[in-house]
Amino acid sequence: MVNNELTSQLNKLADQIAENGFAVIDDFLSNEEIDSILALQGFKNGLLQFKKAGIGKNQDKQINEAIRGDYIQWIDPNNAEPPLLTYLDRLKQVIAFVNQSLFLSLKDCEVHQTIYPIGSFYKRHLDQFKKDDHRKLSVICYLNKDWKEADGGQLRMFIGHESKDVLPLAGRLVCFRSDLLEHEVLPATRERLSLTGWLIDKIG
Ligand code: OGA
Ligand code: MN
Predict the structure, then answer these.
(1) In this predicted structure, what is the pLDDT of residue 1?
(2) Which of 78, 104, 157, 200 sits a CA distance of 20 to 30 A from 128?
(3) How far apart are CA 121 and CA 123, in angstroms?
(4) Which domain does 194 fall in, by range?
(5) How far is the CA of 183 from the centre of ligand 2 (A)?
């Protein structure tokens, strides 16, 4: 059953996407939910457990380094810990809602845990692969408590000739059109943690 708080967040999300092509929703995850995600072994072991992210498929390592510096671990929905299942379940509710309100035909999501080490970044890009256009909406939920403007790490979204910066605040969900919205991640003075995912129009 979708509760009232979530229903109002989903309404805002659909309205903002329809109007601007992106949405920023605060408190999508509660403090308690974030604590239980941060307590998972993967995040506790940090970079030791995660793998350096690549770009597209089989690209050159040095090119990668110049473009993105994050470490990731894909979440296997069939073998995920309860706090991550809670998150995946909430994304399913996003899918059901935007399918109705925005007339989309999203079927599934793919999500990884993400760590940007201090000073790392992800240069301006689009989230759709050239030969694979199944990613329709990008969804990122941040896990960084007490994050300040001076810590950096903004998500910068490019909209026409303008840009909009969003801080990676704990519990905040950002959602945008994967095929249209160019964006980048600015370097930070702290490790920057998130759950990064895509709502896709095929199963798995
Ligand atoms: C990505 C990405 C943005 C962010 O992983 O493709 O653009 O704010 N992430 O973490
Ligand atoms: Mn991206």
Answers:
(1) 47
(2) 78
(3) 6
(4) 3-55+74-200
(5) 6
